[in-house]
Amino acid sequence: MNYKGGAIIIGSLFWENTPKRKKWRNLFLEPLENKIPTRLRIRYGRESITRENTFTMIVTNHNSTDYGTAFIVPFKKRIKNARILEEQAFAMAGAEGLWKNDKTSLNKKWGTVGLMINPELEENRNLQIIKERWGEIYSNYNFDNSIYTIENEKEIINKNGIIDIDWTEEMKEFDFLILTLTVPNPKRLLTSKEIAERIKGSGYKEYFENNIKNGIVTFQDKEIRKILT
Fold it and tell me: What are 7-37's pLDDT values in tens digits?
């Protein structure tokens, strides 16, 4: 095996400089200057208690969601065996707060780190090894993949932790990508007005403004900002 991998990053995982997140980026990823903008269907859709009950970003397959912009940051290491890929995923999960201390996990009730596979690898003999190993990891979680979808949305992740979203042109140089999915809350589409009114009511703009400042944007941002001004 000798594959290229990377992490798709949205939201505060990219710009927040807590010690845990800085350490993860420094140890496992190439410098952020090497980031690759990529189209991704993202929207604000998860109420966050730690962010004054404003809404944070979710990844979605819902056909009403237009593309926004996220970033791919390449791994420092080439993927030469399944263990290296797992190491990368568990490190990202730790930076996301999906596990603490020594009890490593890719999954918690509010989110999970899933795997994306370049469609061109489907005939590769090593792919089955990685898929089987990833499925073994997820079999320990009693994983409910249905909680990651909202009204009339097609499945975004299967029970084995494999993510099914558009593999865009910008992703083609990679063989494997990891991505954090968070559970939508509420289980419906939010309007720009709802998102903006929650920001106005709380007075907390840091998450929204830092996303835009760092180039992480959704199709609703212009309308949200118009309501905020």
Answer: 999 999 999 999 999 999 999 999 999 999 9
